[in-house]
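Researcher: We plan to redesign the surface later, but first we want a full-length starting point. Tokens attached.
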């Protein structure tokens, strides 16, 4: 809508400072109030069927009956308006509805700040500084709690029948229970669907990260419609592969190579780390599994006399470490590391670092869900080399491809 320049000149008049324009009682506030009240009067006229003081209102059965003052919070601060009412009490304004305490968009602002990891008191101070609106921490909690039905619907939503690759990992948070602060694990599942798009399949909370609980996580995924996974990439948690194969017996389990390297380097001094890392690279960067096994043997010959546990660990997990050799080099990195989910977890840790602890599981779900919605907005493109990966999957798992 174009506003005539003459009207703008008349409104601006002799305003001389930003305070007279934007400040309390300034032009913007008065215009907002005037337009809002004018619109409310228009709504009442439409409801009654006749304008103010019109003869048509005589003996109509309903009429105007004064106004009620109302304070409404918004992005530009708190505004007091006069809301008209009718004698029968049947008028339901739409612009500012009954029991509405804030303009549209104000809740979204609170939720946006909360999703970025700000505490309720941080948000309280931010809104007061920016907009001059005083709100309580409990008010902020009420606004953010309103998304919990959305969170629960997301957590229980049906899944696609096939996610060729799924990454499974957990992050640690602190939770308060009976006055005590304790460590909790938030379990996360990140899938890549047949179109190559990343999707967070869900999150679950438990006191510890363990294979037994992962079994319940995988069972939940299956109950929600996920019928098959070609490759599950996991860290080195004992019993984890068995939990996966209990629910998805045909799934190939790929242990995260990056985790194996980190665990291997823990056993050597700083001076030796660079040398050992280079020797380990000859194993997982080999062209074929046969060459990788040969290089592992050479590694053992060189390092076993001082660090025998390293090669022993690689040999013990060998069958879980080599599935990625079935694929071309350009797609191996997608499969042999949990970097995709670790990158997501790093973003989640950024929003939880300001929280000493969470009062309830719902508080954890609420914050992480909102953070995930921000993170996943950027996931609009398939991962690199996905078409090549799917071509290989179609050959290797032809009988398991789901249309």
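Model: Full-length starting sequence:
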């Amino acid at each position: 809508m174009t506003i005539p320049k003459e009207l703008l000149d008349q409104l601006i008049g002799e305003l001389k400072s930003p305070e007279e324009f934007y400040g309390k009682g300034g032009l913007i506030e008065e215009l907002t109030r005037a337009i809002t009240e004018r619109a409310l009067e228009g709504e009442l006229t439409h409801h009654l069927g006749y304008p103010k003081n019109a003869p048509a209102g005589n003996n109509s059965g309903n009429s105007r009956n004064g106004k009620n003052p109302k304070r409404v919070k918004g992005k530009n601060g708190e505004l007091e308006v006069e809301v008209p009412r009718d004698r029968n009490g049947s008028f339901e304004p739409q612009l500012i509805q009954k029991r509405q305490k804030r303009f549209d968009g104000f809740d979204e602002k609170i939720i946006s700040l909360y999703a970025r990891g700000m505490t309720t008191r941080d948000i309280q101070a931010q809104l007061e500084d920016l907009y001059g609106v005083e709100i309580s921490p409990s008010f902020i909690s009420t606004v953010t709690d309103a998304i919990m039905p959305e969170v629960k619907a997301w957590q229980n939503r049906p899944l696609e029948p096939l996610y060729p690759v799924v990454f499974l990992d957990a992050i640690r948070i602190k939770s308060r229970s009976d006055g005590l602060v304790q460590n909790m694990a938030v379990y996360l599942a990140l899938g890549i669907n047949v179109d190559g798009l990343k999707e967070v399949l869900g999150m679950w909370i438990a006191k510890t990260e363990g294979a037994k609980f992962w079994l319940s996580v995988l069972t939940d995924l299956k109950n929600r419609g996920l019928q098959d996974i070609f490759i599950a990439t996991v860290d080195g948690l004992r019993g984890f592969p068995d939990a996966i194969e209990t629910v998805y017996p045909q799934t190939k389990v790929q242990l995260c190579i990056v985790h194996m390297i980190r665990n291997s380097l823990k056993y050597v001094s700083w001076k030796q780390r660079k040398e050992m890392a280079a020797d380990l690279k000859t194993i997982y960067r080999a062209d074929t599994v046969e060459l990788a096994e040969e290089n592992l043997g050479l590694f053992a010959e060189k390092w076993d006399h001082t660090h025998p546990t390293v090669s022993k660990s690689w040999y013990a997990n060998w069958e879980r470490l080599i599935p990625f050799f079935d694929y071309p080099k350009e797609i191996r990195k997608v499969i042999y590391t949990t970097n995709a989910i670790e990158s997501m977890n790093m973003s989640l840790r950024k929003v939880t670092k300001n929280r000493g602890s969470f009062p309830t599981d719902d508080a954890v779900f609420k914050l992480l869900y909102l953070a995930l919605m921000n993170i996943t907005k950027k996931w609009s493109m398939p991962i690199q080399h996905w078409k090549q990966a799917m071509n290989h999957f179609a050959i290797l798992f032809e009988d398991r491809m789901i249309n």
